[in-house]
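Co-fold these.
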Amino acid sequence: MASPSPVLVVKDVTKSYGDHTVIKNLSFTVHAGEAVALTGRNGAGKSTVLRCVVGADRPTSGTVEVLGKPVSETSAEFRRNVATVIDDLDFFPDLSVVEHLDLLARAHGLAEADALVDEVLEEVQLVPQSGQLPGTLSTGQRRRLALATAFVRPRKLLVLDEPEARLDVEGIAWLGTRLREEMSHDLAILMASHEPSLLEALGARTVALGGQRG
Amino acid sequence: MSRGRNRKGRGQNRPAAQGGQNQAAQNSVEHQGARPLESKDAEIADVALPDLIIDHQPEEFWQGEVDEKQLLLLMGDWRKGRTTRNIWQALSDGYVLLFSLAVVLAMLVSLIIQAQGQAATCSATGCRTARELLPWAALAGVLAFAMMAARIFGPVLASAAEGFWLLDSPINRSRVLVNRLWVAIAAAFVGGAAIGALMSALTGSSGQAIIAWTVATGFAACGVVAFAAAQQGAERVWTVKLVGGLAGLAGLCALLAVVGSASGWFHLEITTSVALQSAWGVAAGGVLLLIVSGVLARMRLNRIRRARLMSGGSLAAGMQGAAFALDFALMRDILQERDAVERGQVRPTRGRGLGLQTLVWRDVQRLIRFPRPLLALAVTAVVPYAVEALGMGRFSSTISALVLVAALIPFFTTLRVLSRTKGLMRCLPFTTSQVRTSASVVPGVLAGLWAIAVVPAFHGVGSASHTPWIQAVMLAVITAAAGYIGAIRWVSAKSADYSAPMVATQMGAMPPGLMFNLVRGLDMVALITIWIVLGLSPWISVVVAVIAYAILRMGGINQEELLEKQKEAQAEMARTRRGGSGGAGGSSGTKVVTRKRR
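Predicted complex below.
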């Protein structure tokens, strides 16, 4: 049986800041329906790899390809296929929780946006906060909203930076179930995580980062 | 005494500490008469407990009274103790910058004197009315702004550190805060007086009138700030909002009166002596308000809640940080975020359209939800009429476009949020230029409507000389375009990059783009309208505007990206060279590389 085609290919990626090398010759692939977790201590370079994968940062050398094409953050096709929840997600100060999700669903051309938004809103337990402006949400609720933005749009690759951060125990359990479901629909997942229970729930392949710095 | 007891206490516990930490902890807790450790606690204590010594009795802390003045002096000493240079050393280090500022200020003063001379010679009815009414409009504007700022910041405020460490202690808060109150009032006087003087000078008023309006606007501004402080002590916000709103309305009426009179819709004659007397009357009213409200505010200082004081302080700290980076857009973001938090909740509305259309529809829905900026935009349409009425038609485009930049900024929320961080932009399945274009549609339509509204001003309605209608339309469109493009640049320009190599200056290391932050947005206005000021063909302005818009639509010139591309091209060339050197067909490639090397 032929293995599924790779969604993400990271090949010989090195990232340096001046003389300081954070990542050296890192290579891995993520296939459809597979979850890969980057693990390692703080400062090991997990977020740096994710930033290179989503195009927010460029590797010093090496290549990153998504669906056979080099990563380009400004490409509409790339943005259509890759859903990201990393640290730099911002919100409109004057749009409510539900309006954010509605905007994203419609921007991606989903005709049945209302039903999907209601469903995701319920799933992330933000129905009571649907009319609230993001500035009034707690950090955990903001995290749930950030995760929700990834679920109201079409996607082939999901990139998550410590998705369990600021979630309660119940939230982490929900996330595990949800991501497993995503994988069953052939979604590829790349995530950085410190949460063993989440990695176990997903059966994620682990890429351990963390040689000595410099 | 307490220190002595403390040392004694430590000494008493030391043997226990040597015998084992847990025992020491238990001893010290028991010494305070606390309940014995229960079994569950004991388990925790087995793991690790610090050498806990609680040896003070509560009554020890009630000795003597705090002298607030000494406390403030002590804080001053701590702050000064950390400085490495005094103010004169800092100024002498930055003498080049100071010289540059002095030159720019001299140019501004010269421009004001020139404009004042030009306006003073104008004796048309419109000019005379504008001369008498515009200081009133400025006064009202200053009052509205002072009330708004006072409400947002406090006006009496305290930093987070002071709030946590100082205000929680048993001190007389009013003695600590009283200087803050006077500083806020004094700042209002200086700011108000400066704007009053500037406006009356620009309208060509006499020396006496300039002095009268300077004093009047200054005292009125500090009077309303004192009023806001008195209301802060009484925990009342609606009065401040009401007075601020009334002041704004009065300013709008004054501007409309200028336009109506200049356009000949009605006749309004105010003699100079009446105007002068009114100015002194305003000054007297301001002083009275200042005294009454000042006394009330001083009496109520003790009643201001700590949270309220710290809220203003944290806002001021955020604004200060943004101000150090000269990032005015970030300052606005902070205020907008504060406003959103105060609002808290909105009635959600479902979006309309799909794809890019939905971004445009959201901007329309924003307009319906927050219509206040529309009022401000409508008011700015009066500016070209007022400038023309003062006989300064040549500067009309530049001045009006600058005001329009400020009025259009609130309509660019989508573009601002999508420009400042890339996270949300990455969620949208469009190219950068597509998003920028969609996020600029609604403000563009509003700028177009504004242009239509100001065409009569550029035609010269109400004045003796008329510009042909076609040229008036062109000037109106150029002015609107300059304001529109200036606003796009203001909201979407990149902040100074502190991670990039710094430039060494006499004031210390600075990121290269820092100084450009000062003029961002304004540079576009100058670039587009300078040709009109110089009396050259307006078509030059049109061409410049089109080029500027095309560049901004793409997301500006990204130096980093260009450098990356250059590096990639060099790497590609190196690969070609390596490949070419080994093969028979590589001779031409080698030649190219050799030429490049030279």
